[in-house]
Amino acid sequence: MNARLLIVLAAVLWSLSGFFTRLFDSPWLGLNEPPLTPLQRAAGRALFAGLMLLPLIRPRDVRVTPRLLSTAVAFTLMNASYITAMTWGTSGSAVLLQYTAPLWIFLVTVCLYREPAEPRGLVTLALGMVGVAFLLVGGWTGSQIIPFLLALVSGLFFGLVLLGLRAQRDQSPVWVTAVNHLMAGVALLPFIVRDATPTLPQLGMLVVFGVVQLGIPYLLAAYASRHVRPAEAATLMLIEPILVPVWACLIDPVRERPDVWMILGGLFVVGSLAYRYWPRGGSDERQPKPADHPT
Fold it and tell me: How far apart are CA 159 and CA 122, in angstroms?
């Protein structure tokens, strides 16, 4: 299959996060009883995705470093804050605010690492901040400030994860990704046993959540990224934040119906990323590949 189509398929599967999250709130299939907490959902999807990747790890790839562990901690916090924001708020706002990760990366590299602020990054930052402002207004008027802040925090941790992945390019991507997911699952495992015990149908859906929404798309993107330039791949991945609220709206059309603030904010956030990653002539600057996508 064409590598670009594989990346598109991976982005479509990643975009199912809102669909699965809302599925646990819906009486459809009886998955809403007993209610699963956001951290139970976050733990289940990460754990089962990591277990799926575990058999693919080669013994020679196993190498534990401080950077590996710090990236896994950032991934755990990103996973918990993202799923909580999506559960308490709306899927559209959660994914759009998580996609502010490149803005955080730009700020970190310029302010902490003293890298020069190139013009494209400044334009991306300005457009993205306008989008965040629109989303903030929508969250404020809709009494969704806590989910808004959690989603913004998830974007910060997403950026830290991407920086950690870049710094570990010499490590096996399967090994690094499996560690991220397994640590996130194990760290949040106490919340599964502390709260109401999930039913067998709920556990089964958590397995599907982790395997279909995280495990399979990772493998597709890991293969396809060898054949597609990073900037082009990142542009194709923008299908994800566009589709997330669409799938979620199928389950809960009332709660997930986007308002004008979300639409305006989404246009600016996705537009800023499209401007940032749209392939240009010459060699691509180093950007996160789809295989670096941790969510």
Answer: 17
As a whole number of angstroms, the distance between CA 240 and CA 11 comes to: 5
Q: d(Cα 77, Cα 62) in Å, to the nearest integer?
A: 23
d(CA 66, CA 74): 12
Instruction: Give this prediction's pTM.
Output: 0.88
pLDDT band, very low/low/confident/very high, at 183 (cuts 50, 70, 90): very high
Rounded Cα–Cα distance for residues 246 and 177 (Å): 27
The span from the CA of 55 to the CA of 141, in Å, is 47
User: Which pLDDT band holds residue 286 (cuts at 50, 70, 90)?
Assistant: very low
For CA atoms 248, 216, 31, 183, give the dihedral sign: negative
Structure tokens at 219: 């493998």
Give the position of tokens 């899927």: 91
**Angle, helices 66-88/145-167, rounded to nearest 10 degrees:** 160
Handedness of CA 202, 74, 170, 163 (dihedral sign): positive
Alpha helices in the chain (DSSP H): 3-14, 17-23, 38-53, 66-88, 91-98, 101-111, 119-141, 145-167, 173-194, 200-210, 216-224, 230-236, 239-251, 260-277
Q: Which residue has the tokens 């804050």?
A: 81
Supply the pLDDT for residue 281.
Answer: 59
